[in-house]
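Aim 2, interim progress. The first record below pairs a target sequence with its structure tokens.
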Amino acid sequence: MCMTIYEELLDDIDSSDIKLVYDKSTQIPAVSFSNANGDYIFLNEYSFETNAERFVALAHEKGHCDSGAFYNIHTPLITREICEHRAWRRAILDQLPFDKLMEAFEICKTEDGISIYDLANYLDMPPDFIKMAIEQYIKLGKQIL
């Protein structure tokens, strides 16, 4: 049976040193932190309507863990922005590698071009995540199309 990208991400986290805690009591949909006992992701699954939304939040928080880009409420704003950028970049590079994105472009293109929504449907990812990935790869100097 084929796993969804969300299930693959859960499996990846399960096989890592990251501890995933399901917590429906928090108002925050997802948060990650690190302490002496390791890296943690708290996820309120009820904060999301779709697995695609859960996937993006979880991929982002895993990006924090994988890049070590953590901050707290006392961290200066510029450092927070840097940490967020690093987490998003890591999530994109890990979850939507350039080759996978280009393969999706080839499969989804039509005579009229490529629809971000067709890509989102094919990849089972929200359109905003795909847009962010395209922007990131352009910044990295990758040739899109």
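The second target in this work package is listed in the same format:
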Amino acid sequence: MNTRYQELASRIRGELSELDHVVQRAQSAWRYVQNTADNQVYLDSVALNLHGLYSGLERLFELVARHVDGVTPSGENWHRDLLQRMAQEMPERRPAVVSADTARALDEYRRFRHLVRNLYTFHLVPEKLEDLLNALPRAWQNVQAELLAFAEFLEDLAHTE
């Protein structure tokens, strides 16, 4: 049995549980944004949690790239390239980790994370946050299902090697 793949599958399952909590916090803070006149602190909370969501997913993608694909993400556009890589099947190694549709949806969160890292939060546009929050339930449901399917692939692989 290949324990490396089993450990990665366990890590994916554990991180998904943690990230589900992050999604719930973002959605909860968004409800406060909608119902509170002085909502800047809640907007900050939404932004921070969306940042955390994509960062957590990217950590998982990095682990897949390193431990399954045998590559270390690098270069000026490595964040974008890594996400694109996860939507590609790697013949003889693995299926796509996420679908092309999921990767496109996640790219919006990746780009938003870049904004959060490079702007003061008071410059964030609430309408952009609203678009991301409206898309979040479907995007999260899809990425969860696809990552759980990938974890199953890893577990099967761990038992055959």
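The mean pLDDT is 92. This observation will shape the mutagenesis plan for the next reporting period.
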